[in-house]
Amino acid sequence: MKNGIAVAGSLILDQHYMVETYPEQGKLTNIRGTDRSVGGTGNLIMDLAKIDETLPVKVSAILGTGGNGRFVKNTLSQYPNIDLCNIVERGDTSMTMVMNAMDNNQRTFFYLPAGSDEYDMECIDWERIQADIFQLEYLLLMKKIDEPDPEYGTHAARILHDARAHGMKTSIDMVTTSDGKGGEIVKASLKYTDYCTINELEAEMITGIRILENGVLDDGKAYAALKAIKACGVSSWVVIHSPSCGYGLDCVTGETVKVKSLALPKGYIKGTTGAGDAYCAGILYGAYREMSIESAMKLGTASAACSLSDTSGTEGMRSYEEVRKVYETYRVE
Question: Rounded to an integer, what distance in angstroms lies between the CA atom of residue 58 and that of residue 11?
Answer without folding.
Answer: 13
